[in-house]
Amino acid sequence: MRYHNFASVQGSCTYARPERLGPATDTLASRLLITQLEIRWNSTVLKISIKLASLYFISVIKMDSPIRVRYQTLEVGSVDIHVCTLRDIKQFYDPDGAAKKMGISSATWPLFGIIWPSSLVLAHFMADYDTAGKRVLEIGCGIGLPSLVLNKQNADITATDYHPETGNFLLRNAQLNNSDAINYQQVDWADQTRHLGQFDLIIGSDLLYEDEHIKLLARFIERHAAPDCKVILVDPGRGRKNKISVKMEKFGYRNTHIRPDDTSYLDQPFKGHILKFKRKGEQRVN
Ligand SMILES: C[S@@+](CC[C@H](N)C(=O)[O-])C[C@H]1O[C@@H](n2cnc3c(N)ncnc32)[C@H](O)[C@@H]1O
Predict the structure, then answer these.
(1) What's the whole-number average pLDDT of the chain?
(2) What is the pTM of this model?
């Protein structure tokens, strides 16, 4: 009976040392049973401890990942935008293989995490753009500087990217700027099942660096474009601006390629273009 009591106490996780049980338990059989219970108890405690230790280890890794970051304040028009970015494009951290599953290699992993010159050009362009009453979509946003600028202006902005870390940086950066969180959607241009609704203005920077992106991007834009949608893409001169223009023409867009007025905010002269696409509802090509 005492043993049962002892076992049930063990079962409810209250540790009782055997010597406290007194003389009635002092037999070889009872000692063996108590030893077995102790071993079982100790192994359960050990298993729980190992689990807790590994959870702690994982959380420590997550809180203190080996990614190195950089903080800077960028002046865009009349506003200062504070940003936390990756320190450089040597950073890589994909412990769960989440990025790998999406086809993001260690070489392309960090591309989202710095502010590319085209992003600065787009952010400056958007700083003076009238977005009143417009639903705006930034695609392949990465750090999302243009979205941060538009968010400061209370524009109706949705930022998107497929990288698993982009949403975390966007949230952090909205907080750094004392702004509301930006509506963010993790979506792959290739995913034809996702639909985020229709937008009046679609913007993006430095997205034309792979041939296979051209078709995916044009289709993604088409799926999310309102009938009178305007599209603004900034390309740093990666040699694919005519290819995207041809694809977009098939969806009824006329295009103009302009050079940004003044890019003195960049370290190097900007060799690229701002690609503007415009469509009237009735010109839509199926
Ligand atoms: C060169 S970075 C440019 C980032 C940002 N727009 C800038 O200019 O700083 C390209 C961005 O496109 C995103 N991207 C690449 N392929 C994508 C895809 N299939 N679907 C969605 N985003 C993609 C990457 O994650 C990355 O953030």
Answers:
(1) 82
(2) 0.79
